[in-house]
Every structure is written in structure tokens, then in C-alpha cells.
Amino acid sequence: VKAGELTRAEAGEMIAGLEARIAEHAKGGDRDGKPSKADLAERKAAFLEDLTAKVKAGELTRAEAGEMIAGLKARIAEHAK
């Protein structure tokens, strides 16, 4: 967004899509309401595939994709506390 290569709306759409996928997978979670390791691995793979495709299509830079991955990791770490 800062580099002008992605609009706030596009970034918002990507985040909303990720949140929707997370919510959908959470429905199939285990007994304590958390998604299974397989679900988490599937979501991670889908997220990374989507970012890779956007970088290849010129919609995101590698740096932007890296920032998105870092942000996601930070949110995951915060939820793990």
C-alpha cells in the first residue's frame, strides 16, 4: 500500500478473504474449538499460494508479501498467548 502497488481496498479484500477462510476452517475444529494442525497447514498453504500468485502477477511485490506474512505470524503469536 505504501509503495502504491496495492490499494487499501485490495489489501482489505485480501485480509477479509483470509479471515473468511480462517472462520470457515474454524467451524471444523477439534473439541476445544481450535482448528486441527491439518486445517492450519492447509490454510497456510492456500495463503502462501495466493501471495505467490499475486507476486507473479505483479499485484504485490515480494517485500509486500513478506510484510503480510510477518503480520500474519505476529497475529498468530498474539493469539497463542
Question: How would you summarize the topology of this molecule?
Answer:
Elements: H1 8-26, H2 37-56, H3 62-80
Q: What percent of residues are in strands?
A: under 5%
Q: What value does the average pLDDT take?
A: 82
Provide the gyration radius in Å: 14 Å
Number of helices, counting only DSSP H or I runs of 4 residues or more = 3
The share of residues in helices is: over 70%
Low-confidence stretches: none
Q: Tell me about the biggest sheet?
A: none
Provide the structure class. Answer: mainly alpha
Number of strands: 0
Sequence of secondary-structure elements: HHH
Terminal Cα span: 29 Å
Using the alpha-carbon principal axes, give the shape: elongated
Question: Could you give a short description of this structure?
Answer:
This protein has 81 residues and is an all-alpha fold. Helix content is 72%, strand content 0%. The protein contains three helices and no strands.
Could you walk me through the main structural features you see in this protein, from its secondary elements to its overall organization?
This protein has 81 residues and is mainly alpha-helical. The protein is built from 3 helices and no strands. It has helices spanning 8-26, 37-56, 62-80. The termini are far apart. The model has no long low-confidence stretch (mean pLDDT 82).
